[in-house]
Design a protein that fits this description.
By secondary structure, the protein is of the alpha/beta class. It has ten helices and ten strands. Helix content is about 35%, strand content about 25%. It binds adenosine-5'-triphosphate and magnesium ion.
């Protein structure tokens, strides 16, 4: 069943066609990667779906409900959460407080958030559980600013996860980390997604990562969907290879080792 459906979604910036007539269906339980060169419109698509940016025209259906004009918080309530290409953390708070704040915001608690998190046993237990799921238990009391880049990326995903979404839309969760750390981050995310039967849409540049984890791959170019299909179909698509790597042929995606 379709969890998310976009119909002729459009968002331009002046002459720039950031999102250009994108019609996409994401089924429940799918793990989909969105790829494309720099400036292809991947982040803009994520922004429009999450409500951080409003669509100019077109429609966004989520669980069969039209959310095109819903605010970002309304979409969070509906079950859409996203992470950020440049992480969106409270640098001066600990990992634990960052997660607690996300839980509080989900629950609409407007009290003195960070301090009270320690006193609210349910929130505290949930925050620790989430930190554990993301491999960050040992970093609980460290300030977000002191975490390694890979840990910061995971914490940002954990904040989206703390909103208890049905759809996790992750904007480059492995950017800026080493190849080895990328695998660890993706394994962690994939385990959480599988365990909770979430639907995941992940923007990613590393095609090794994309081919390994995706059920389906969506290729964007100049704001539009250039191609979509299984990893095997995308791997052998010469037009995609040309766009992504500037060289055609099935060898374009061969592993680098
Ligand atoms: N707020 C904005 N104002 C003006 N132009 C924008 C804005 N946001 C994005 N753009 C432009 O829209 C196009 C798509 O940008 P977007 O950030 O969505 O690409 P992307 O696929 O995420 O790229 P990257 O892989 O580098 O993250 C680019 O040409 C970009 O310069
Ligand atoms: Mg981007």
């Amino acid at each position: 069943m379709a969890l998310l459906e976009t119909v002729n979604l459009k968002r331009y910036f002046g002459e720039t066609r950031a999102v250009d007539n994108v019609s996409l269906t994401i089924d429940e339980g799918e793990f989909v990667s969105v790829v494309g060169p720099n400036g292809a419109g991947k982040t803009s698509l994520c922004n429009v779906v999450s409500g951080n940016l409003m669509a100019e025209s077109g429609q966004i259906m989520f669980k069969g409900v039209d959310v095109t004009h819903a605010t970002a918080p309304e979409r969070v309530k509906a079950g859409i959460a996203r992470s950020f290409q440049l992480v969106n953390l409270f640098d001066d708070l600990t990992a634990f407080d960052n997660v607690s704040l996300a839980i509080f915001s989900r629950d609409d608690k407007t009290r003195n958030l960070a301090k009270l998190a320690h006193l609210d046993e349910a929130v505290s237990a949930e925050a620790d559980g989430i930190l554990g799921q993301f491999g960050l238990a040992a970093k609980r009391n460290e300030l977000a600013r002191d975490l390694a880049q890979g840990e910061r990326k995971l914490l940002d995903v954990a904040l989206a996860y703390a909103l208890r979404p049905k759809l996790l839309f992750l904007d480059e969760p492995t950017s800026g980390v080493s190849t080895r750390d990328k695998g660890q981050i993706m394994d962690t995310i994939a385990a959480v997604v599988r365990r909770d039967r979430l639907t995941a849409v992940i923007i990613e540049h590393d095609m090794d990562v994309v081919f390994k984890y995706s059920d389906r791959i969506v290729v964007m170019h100049q704001g539009a969907v250039l191609a979509q299909g299984t990893p095997d179909a995308i791997r052998t698509n010469e037009q995609v290879a040309l766009i992504l790597l500037g060289s055609s042929g099935p060898d374009a995606f061969s592993r680098k080792e």
